[in-house]
Design goal:
Layout: H1 5-13, E1 22-25, H2 28-37, E2 43-47, E3 60-63, H3 66-76, E4 80-81, E5 91-92, E6 96-100, E7 104-115, E8 120-126, H4 133-139, E9 145-149, H5 156-165, H6 173-190, E10 192-203, E11 208-210, E12 213-217, H7 239-246, E13 249-253, E14 258-262, H8 265-277, E15 284-288, H9 294-305, E16 312-319, H10 325-339, E17 345-351, H11 354-363, E18 369-370, H12 374-384
Parallel strand pairs: 14-16, 16-17, 17-18
Antiparallel strand pairs: 1-6, 2-3, 2-6, 4-5, 7-8, 7-10, 8-9, 10-11, 10-12, 13-15
Helix pairs in contact: 2-3, 5-6, 9-10, 10-11
Length: 391
Amino acid sequence: MNIHEYQAKEILARYGVPVPPGAIADTAEAAEAIVKDLDATRFAVKAQVHAGGRGKAGGVRLVATAQAARDAAKELLGKVLVTEQTGAEGRQIRKVYVEAAENIDRSLYTALFVDRQSGKIALIGAKVGGEDIEERAAKDPDVIGKVLLDLHGGSSAAMEEFAAWLDIPKALSSDAVSLFEGLHQAFSDLDASLIEINPLAITKDGRLVALDTKVTIDDNALARHPELADLRDDDELDPVELEAQSHDINFVRMDGNIGVAVNGAGLALATNDMLVDAGGNPANFMDIRTTATSLEISRGFDLLLNAPNLQAVLINIHGGGMTRCDTIAEALGIAMRRTGRKVPIVFRAAGNNADFARTVLKNCGITFTDARNMKDAVEHAVALAGGGKRT
């Protein structure tokens, strides 16, 4: 779950991360009033959307007066902001964050995420921050430094060395360690999958300040954090994905022509990767949660079958957990009757009630290609969708 910048700053400030003073506004008048309450000479009016690259797209305005803040907010609110991360459809700006602008000497980059190779938390950083950090890192991986931390604590000495690697002045070394420790504690407490500060500023008067922050919380851990549920902004979510979530389905729309339904996120990723390797183009990512009923799964199939470019459907399921294969077959039968969509089906099932699932599909009058392994299933689906080659 992504949260807005202003929400991330409010949370991180509780962990001792220094952030500029500011407040959220949903009207131009509110933005003007915030500036009047801030003790500063310059101010930033920042669009609140779940996307990076806001500055390049005109979503961040620097102003010097309350009237200018009002004018900037009036221009931004209601506007559709298009950045490299939003896609062509963009995101509508419903709120702006108004904060004191800092006099910056240097801009750094730092972030925490789960390092899958080591199973630890990775603290990474770069000596120069900014919106082009990903491009620079892709060209030269050495611009990014990394320190591995344990879940419940990190070495202060290692963090101090990391601060030195970032060329943070010695006078700010202890502040940098405190900031890293606060980020680490927040990451652990929130069950976060990403915390990012870009830029992390060294100000001209010798302070470390988090100018822009991003926090992503693991959806699977939200049951442990009911207090965070209100932070979700449904307006920022794809309505199709939001509907799928309400039916215990993880669903992401893509631009291909092969619908994919799988039970298990890892299996779903592997299936989509195999489709691409075989010359296919997935129309979606669909992971059926173990708690989903046949009626809920059928709603996921409704979304899959409504894809405009759909040429084939690949169902790759393993009944090794709580979800039986016949439950998914029953759901497909319900959805196909409800939508009336006719499309070639490739069905690969293994595990609990796999053979019975095939009987269920036949009883529902569904014609399908019966594949007994993933390679065969993928090749059939790609061929039926008019791509790749059968071997």
